UniProtKB/TrEMBL annotation:
The gene is gem. It is found in: Cell membrane. The keyword Transcription does not apply. Belongs to the small GTPase superfamily. RGK family. Binds GTP saturably and exhibits a low intrinsic rate of GTP hydrolysis. It comes from the Eukaryota. It comes from Sphaeramia orbicularis. Keywords: Calmodulin-binding, Cell membrane, GTP-binding, Membrane, Nucleotide-binding, Phosphoprotein. Its main location: membrane. This is GTP-binding protein. Coiled coil: none annotated. GO terms for cellular component: plasma membrane. GO terms for molecular function: calcium channel regulator activity; calmodulin binding; GTP binding; GTPase activity. Interacts with Calmodulin.
Length: 195
């Protein structure tokens, strides 16, 4: 269970339970510069004027939006932990999320190692089998600067028992697939709880 002091400014009162009517809290985690802000911008619709009105902004780093996944609406509260290194000490991010997008940049091996560290820390705070996590290798458009291969990313995800996807926020490639994937995993978890 989460402590109130550890929640962010958004939706504190009604989102402690994850269900059809409650938003899923999805946290963006990763080293600085991997593309978390770019992900949040795409989610918020900043790069897509058609969508820019339907995102409720609660603060700099929280955005709530209802998206359709497999024909069913899902409300996501996105937390962009832009200063994860600072907020880390509070351990809040590790406790507020229902699911995590764990980002690294395929052009930045230290960020890949950082993702592994974050995954290990996450495991200490979250029950391993119940928290959906997707390992996201971002910046896959930068082919010539690649430092982490697809197979390394996939192998890392297998070790950490999470899904894997490569994305390019710059090209808007696979970013929504990552968000939809996390919703599907959250639904599977919800359905298995109800069963
Ligand atoms: P954050 O520190 O994790 O929030 O990272 P940002 O979203 O601020 O991204 C850091 C830099 O990488 C910015 O200059 C972005 O424009 C750039 N960037 C983010 N995603 C991509 C991507 O998929 N491809 C490329 N080429 N650049 C990206």
């Amino acid at each position: 269970s989460r402590s109130k002091s550890c929640t962010s400014s958004a939706g504190e009162s009604d989102s402690n339970q994850t269900g059809p009517g409650n938003p899923y809290r999805v946290v963006l985690l990763g080293a600085s510069g991997v593309g978390k802000t770019a992900f949040a911008s795409i989610f918020a619709g900043a790069a897509d004027s058609m969508d820019s009105d339907d995102c409720e902004l609660f603060g700099d780093e929280v955005c709530e939006k209802t998206v359709e996944v497999d024909g069913e609406p899902a409300t996501i509260t996105l937390l962009d932990t832009w200063d994860a290194e600072v907020r880390w000490n509070t351990q809040c991010n590790m406790q507020t999320g229902d699911a995590y997008l764990l980002l690294y940049s395929i052009t930045d091996r230290p960020s890949f190692l950082r993702a592994s560290e974050l995954r290990i820390t996450l495991r200490q705070f979250r029950p391993v089998h119940h928290t959906p996590i997707i390992l996201v290798g971002n910046k896959c458009d930068l082919v010539r600067r690649r430092e982490v291969s697809v197979s390394e990313g996939r192998a890392c995800a297998a070790v950490f028992d999470c899904k894997f996807i490569e994305t390019s926020a710059a090209m808007q490639h696979n970013v929504w697939e990552a968000f939809h994937g996390i919703v599907r995993q959250l639904r599977l978890r919800r359905d298995s709880k109800e069963a």
